[in-house]
């Protein structure tokens, strides 16, 4: 896997872990949880866009 994809995937995993931690302590409607979810969504979009370009 190219370095860029690996770095993006690592960031996705970090953001997913942060979101899971937040969800253990806060409501899904909490602004911090929503912001973390949006960051994860954005990084996933970036990952899949980069993946398509590499094919």
Notable traits:
55 residues, mainly alpha, 0% strand
Describe the structure.
This protein is mostly helical and 55 residues long. The protein has one domain. 85% of the residues lie in helices and 0% in strands. α1 packs antiparallel against α2. The longest helix is centred in the C-terminal third of the chain and has 24 residues, at 31-54. It starts with a helix and ends with a helix. The model has no long low-confidence stretch (mean pLDDT 94).
* Alpha carbon gap, first and last residue: 11 Å
By helix and strand content, what is the structural category?
mainly alpha
**Number of DSSP E strands:** 0
Tally of structural domains: 1
> Unreliable stretches, pLDDT < 50, 5 or more residues?
none
Helix content: over 70%
Number of helices: 2
Question: Major beta sheet, specifics?
Answer: none
Topology:
Layout lengths: L2 H23 L5 H24 L1
Helix pairs in contact: 1-2
Give a brief rundown of this model.
With 55 residues, the chain is mainly alpha-helical. The chain has 2 helices and no strands. It has one domain.
């Amino acid at each position: 896997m190219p370095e860029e994809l690996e770095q993006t995937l690592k960031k996705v995993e970090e953001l997913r872990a942060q979101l899971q931690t937040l969800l253990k302590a806060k409501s899904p409607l909490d602004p911090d949880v929503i912001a973390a979810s949006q960051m994860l969504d954005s990084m996933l979009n970036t990952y899949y866009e980069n993946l398509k370009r590499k094919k």
